[in-house]
């Protein structure tokens, strides 16, 4: 439960395994891999090999340690780097996956071009990310900038067009707004119910900061402009 940074945990990873038919011979690139939780789940449940690409060095190091402790170093390789700058072998992966990480990248056209370059012909793309339904208010934009560190939250049609321009076909876009809104609301309420306990363990700054973050995301979904997506495509 602690190494899955996205919504619905391992259930969402199982969705990717099924959607992209990931199996023992699959070479998978996980962009924004965090602590490596999804990579380890994919490797364990399918036998695939995963390159876990993470920008933040501290997360990469902890992820490496956890992977070694799980005995999965032979299936999961951790790389610390920026997806836009990391050298990726042309067609070196059968699948690219990412959960709630791509919105941090300011140049989606360049991003998806890099991902298209990395996927072998016939390979697949699975992304969970954010999009927008309307124009953000000044308050919403402030939260996106300062709390979520969001660099790109496009409209649905623009998102699809960018993916197709990078050479992907058979793009399937699923709006995840309603289930994700329910998820973040329940998450925030469950966390606040134990806030005193978390404060005693972690201190007021850490515990209170996460509480504020959770409710900021709830308010974004409630505003009606912020939305979630699940996208699959074929190279």
Q: What report would you give on this structure?
A:
With 235 residues, the chain is of the alpha/beta class. It has nine helices and seven strands. The protein has helices at residues 9-19, 37-46, 57-69, 108-118, 138-146, 156-165, 177-193, 195-202, 204-222, and strands at 27-31, 49-54, 76-80, 93-99, 119-132, 169-175, 226-234. The protein has a seven-stranded mixed beta sheet, with helices on both faces. Strand 2, helix 3 and strand 3 form a beta-alpha-beta unit. Helix 4 packs across helix 6 (156-165), helix 7 runs antiparallel to helix 9 (204-222) and helix 8 (195-202) crosses helix 9. The longest helix has 19 residues, at 204-222. The two termini are 32 Å apart. 39% of the residues are buried.
Supply the number of helical segments.
9
Q: In whole angstroms, how far apart are the ends?
A: 32 Å
pLDDT < 50 stretches: none
Measured by DSSP, the beta-strand proportion falls in 15-25%
* Helical residues, percent: 40-55%
Estimate the mean pLDDT confidence.
Answer: 97
Order of helices and strands: HEHEHEEHEHHEHHHE
Shape: globular
The Cα radius of gyration reads: 18 Å
Q: In terms of structural class, how would the helical and strand content be classed?
A: alpha/beta
Q: Largest sheet, described in full?
A: 7 strands, mixed
Number of strands: 7
Strand order of the largest sheet: 3-2-1-4-5-7-6
What descriptive keywords fit this protein?
seven-stranded mixed beta sheet; globular; alpha/beta; single chain; 235 residues
